[in-house]
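Feature request, filed as a ticket because there's no other form

It would be nice if the structure record came with a short human-readable summary line next to the tokens. Right now we just get the raw output. Example of a typical job, pasted below so the devs can see what we mean:
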Amino acid sequence: MQPVGGIQSKSLSSQVYLHLRQQLMSARYRPGDRLKIRDLARSMGTSETPVREALLQLVRDGALEMKPGYYIRVRRVNLQEYLEIRKVRLLLEPYAALQAMPYIDDAVIDELEKLHAVLVQAESKKDYPTALQANYDFHFMVYRRSNMPHLIEILERLWVQIGSTMTFLYPFGHPTYEGDHQHLHMLAALRARDPDAVLAAYEADLVEGGRNFLRYLEEMEKSGVHDPAGP
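Raw output as currently delivered:
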């Protein structure tokens, strides 16, 4: 029988892992940020062991990397990896939204509209962390209503790998649209309960909204720049 302390330790490690994963998915860390076990343990009010276990799991997830000297830092995906993840997202995220559609009522859409308003306001104020958080919340409020936990786990695994790279979105790859913001098309499609429009809007958001971002990542790759905000 496993000791009670072991169960508690495992549970605490899972809580730390979920917290850090959430922070990574919503772009709270930048590529190259060093995560110090002692500092994280102090800030979370826990011992170092569950933090260490959580960080190692995130290394296995591909979100962090362990460097020589046994320090851990946030990993940035390269352009080839990003393009592969983007292709998978183009397949899975519109599908997740389609599966969620029967479980999304007008009250949920009202909440999505509020999140989009937060995003737009944050962009106008150049409050980029809030904008990135609102964008993450907007998308996963829909996806999690698909009632498909395995699909959500896959999407979270993808977002945890690219979350830090998304910090380059503002101001370097700021989304632009030829017409209305694609989030508005998503909301209209969900209100109309139009499956074809839902698929089209989610695909267009990733392609059109991510056009400048992809262009910037390509420029970074060509120039060999790893962090435009770095020294």
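Something like this underneath would help us a lot:
The two ends are 52 Å apart (CA to CA).
Confidence is low (pLDDT under 50) at residues 1-7.
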